[in-house]
Specification:
Length: 352
């Protein structure tokens, strides 16, 4: 299969080394090396991204805009093959893309230093800032309702209604956490109906390994751009908070290890606002800390919903896996709410 795809780019697969690359969970990614040249080959997971051409059109529009208005920005777009196509359908119906490999780059899977959070947040903020004048309505939604918190809560309610009583009994504490935090959904509804909260071009998947760093720790560019689409800035900020500030990840079973690293929270704010401080409306800025609540709560709901639905979406490596994940995220939410209650002054002091 690789032969067919690489041949369309004029690359002889028999002269290449092709090895799995990265830690992504959705698409299958490989590094292709031929002599001194290297590429990233990726098979799109069409179970998740049902319209690969919509992704391709989005990236093409953004690439053209950045090339015209911000020529120095490093935007890692897929290469075009000999036929001028950047998405290639293989004979078995799979879809592939080929990207340039960014020499001297590296990824970080676990944040160790606050400055990494600052650099990543600034990079995501810069991306949205540079596209501030881009006509966001031109972009397709590659994952419909991806961060629609109102929908996620309704899905939880439906799963709760349809679930077996033993599931409900097992998850009694998590269900109580979900219901007691419904005010987060109410705030979300107010935001989406407020004209001062703009739909912008945002990444929607801001985990740290979607940023490429150089050897000195400087952020070079963003990768995994399939979820770039219209959205609210809180999606990017909240996802950074959810995945950067906790010392333990969402798989941690010892809930006492889930603590908020306030210094990382501070750097997310400082980094993102260094790029977006002059762009955001004052009402948007006021909800900066809410972003973390929104995304942590949303992920907790999704794990809990999947547990009640018998693990049909995320799957499970052991009995009760998604309930453990949900409890993990609800604990993180509790810790975050306590930490940010005492950090309101931080946002005011650093407001840009």
């Amino acid at each position: 299969m690789f032969n067919e795809i690489l041949d369309s780019f004029g690359i002889n697969a028999s002269e290449c080394q092709v090895v799995p690359f990265g830690s992504g969970l959705i698409n299958k990614t490989y590094k292709v090396t031929k002599g001194l040249n290297a590429f990233i080959l990726q098979r799109i997971n069409t179970d998740v991204f049902t319209d690969p051409y919509a992704i391709d059109r989005n990236l093409g529009l953004i690439q053209d805009y950045l090339h015209k208005h911000h020529t120095g920005y490093l935007f890692v777009a897929p290469l075009k093959n000999a036929s001028g196509k950047s998405v290639i359908e293989a004979s078995n119906g799979s879809f592939y893309r080929l990207f340039p490999f960014i020499e001297g780059s590296r990824t970080v899977n676990h944040l160790q230093h606050p400055h990494e959070a600052y650099n990543a947040a600034a990079q995501f903020g810069r991306f949205t800032r540079l596209l501030d004048s881009f006509e966001v309505g031109k972009l397709a939604y590659t994952l419909t309702d991806f961060h629609n918190l109102d929908l996620r809560y309704r899905q939880f309610q439906q799963a709760l209604q349809d679930s077996l009583s033993n599931k409900q009994e097992q998850a009694r504490d998590a269900i109580a956490d979900a219901e007691s935090n419904m005010h987060i959904v109410d705030t979300y509804k107010q935001i989406v109906n407020n004209k001062n909260f703009r739909l912008r071009v945002v990444h929607h998947d801001t985990k740290i390994n979607n940023v490429l760093f150089d050897e000195e720790g400087n952020a070079l560019c963003l990768v995994d751009l399939d979820t770039v689409m219209p959205g609210y800035y809180m999606s990017d900020v909240g996802d950074m908070m959810r995945t950067y500030i906790a010392a333990a990840d969402e798989e941690e079973q010892d809930l006492d290890r889930i603590k908020v690293r306030k210094e990382f929270l501070k750097e997310i704010y400082a980094g993102y606002m260094s790029e977006m401080g002059d762009i955001l409306h004052e009402e948007e800025k006021e909800q900066f800390l809410y972003s973390g609540e929104m995304m942590i709560y949303m992920q907790a709901l999704r794990f809990l919903t999947d547990f009640l639905n018998n693990d049909t979406y995320y799957g499970a490596r052991y009995e009760g896996h998604n309930l453990t994940r949900a409890r993990n995220q609800f604990r993180l939410l509790k810790e975050y709410q306590a930490a940010t209650h005492n950090l309101d002054f931080l946002v005011k002091d650093l407001a840009l």
